[in-house]
């Protein structure tokens, strides 16, 4: 029975990462051929996925508004919604638009290394050997992908780099901001409200509905895929899988995402990468693997 549960957990995490990889490429298709913008996709994804999660919480007999009882929790939720979730979602899709799903995924994958640097500075601690090597490999990999190994010029547009970094910074907030909230409330409740609040706020301020899009069956199916199979299901599958096999094993398996995003982009989206790009992607994935491995302390002379 344990073996079956273990296999089930592994499959759930793998399926979720592949769905996330498909999500970016479906977004790329909508941007290129259907006139959909990152504004549209971010709004639809956040509002509808948030609503579905809130409806689930309601029918689970949970108090939807309990999280707003204390002002401090409300402020944390709003900060998480806009500075974490929205920044990550919009930054990612904008990076996809100005580059491709694989490049956007790799740039967003720099978030754990930003967290490591911030944590090391705050705690005034020397990182472990694995973390130090991981940082070096990640920076080299990102450099190769961004420049093709040519220090004098960018291989991707400045907008792709800016939005990719925004996605990474947003991902930092996404991982750190809700920690105190998760001690008191369910993850689905936090995510449901954060998605809905940020999606509605984004819609009111930036008015993406004023931007015309090409409405076809494929457009509707694409947006439906992003909301459900690109957001809701992988989120739930990943939570279920990580609960069975543990967070560390789940995070290692999630390294499939940038690899899958690259394969899908090349085979189905017509993207072309140079050999140096594949080396860069490989180094970042290897760095993420090191980051999730057992730690070894660096020798310190102090």
What does this structure look like?
The protein is globular and about 55 Å long. The C terminus is likely disordered. Helix 2 packs antiparallel against helix 3, helix 3 packs across helix 9 and helix 4 crosses helix 7. It contains 13 helices and no strands. Helices cover 76% and strands 0% of the residues. It has one domain. By secondary structure, the protein is mostly helical. The termini are far apart.
Structural topology:
Elements: H1 2-33, H2 38-59, H3 71-98, H4 101-108, H5 111-123, H6 129-147, H7 158-176, H8 179-182, H9 187-206, H10 217-245, H11 247-253, H12 256-268, H13 275-291
Helix pairs in contact: 1-3, 1-4, 1-10, 1-12, 2-3, 2-9, 2-10, 3-4, 3-7, 3-9, 4-7, 4-12, 5-7, 6-13, 10-11
Rounded to an integer in angstroms, the radius of gyration calculated over CA atoms is 19 Å
Structural class: mainly alpha
Task: Estimate the global geometry from the Cα principal axes.
Answer: globular
Average the pLDDT over all residues and give the rounded result.
Answer: 88
Biggest beta sheet attributes: none
- Strand percent estimate: under 5%
The unreliable regions are 296-302
Helix content: over 70%
> How many helices?
13
Distance between the termini: 50 Å
Please tell me the total number of domains: 1
From N to C, what is the helix and strand string? HHHHHHHHHHHHH
Would you report the number of β strands? Answer: 0
| Quaternary | single chain
Summarize the structure.
With 302 residues, this protein is mainly alpha-helical.
């Amino acid at each position: 029975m344990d073996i079956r549960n273990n296999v089930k957990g592994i499959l759930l995490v793998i399926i979720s990462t592949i769905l996330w990889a498909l999500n970016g490429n479906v977004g790329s298709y909508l941007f290129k051929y259907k006139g959909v913008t990152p504004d549209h996709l971010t709004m639809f994804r956040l509002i509808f996925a948030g609503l579905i999660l809130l409806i689930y919480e309601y029918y689970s007999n949970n108090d939807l508004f309990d999280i707003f009882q204390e002002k401090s929790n409300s402020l944390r939720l709003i900060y998480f919604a806009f500075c974490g979730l929205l920044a990550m979602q919009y930054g990612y899709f904008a990076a996809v638009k100005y580059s491709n799903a694989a490049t956007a995924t790799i740039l967003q994958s720099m978030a754990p290394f930003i967290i490591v640097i911030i944590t090391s500075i705050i705690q005034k601690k020397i990182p472990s050997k694995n973390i130090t090597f991981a940082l070096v490999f990640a920076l080299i990999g990102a450099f190769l992908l961004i420049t093709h190994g040519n220090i004098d010029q960018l291989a991707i547009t400045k907008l792709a780099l800016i939005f990719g970094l925004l996605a990474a910074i947003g991902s930092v907030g996404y991982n750190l901001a809700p920690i105190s909230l998760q001690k008191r409330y369910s993850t689905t409740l936090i995510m449901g409200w954060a998605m809905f609040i940020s999606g509605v706020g984004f819609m009111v301020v930036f008015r993406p509905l004023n931007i015309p899009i090409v409405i076809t069956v494929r457009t509707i199916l694409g947006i439906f895929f992003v909301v459900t199979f690109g957001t809701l299901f992988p989120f739930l599958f990943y939570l279920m899988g990580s609960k069975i096999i543990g967070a560390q094993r789940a995070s290692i398996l999630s390294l499939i995402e940038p690899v899958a995003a690259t394969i899908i982009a090349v085979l189905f989206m017509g993207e072309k990468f140079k050999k140096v790009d594949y080396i860069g992607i490989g180094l970042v994935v290897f760095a993420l693997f090191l980051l999730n491995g057992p730690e070894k302390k660096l020798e310190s002379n102090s």
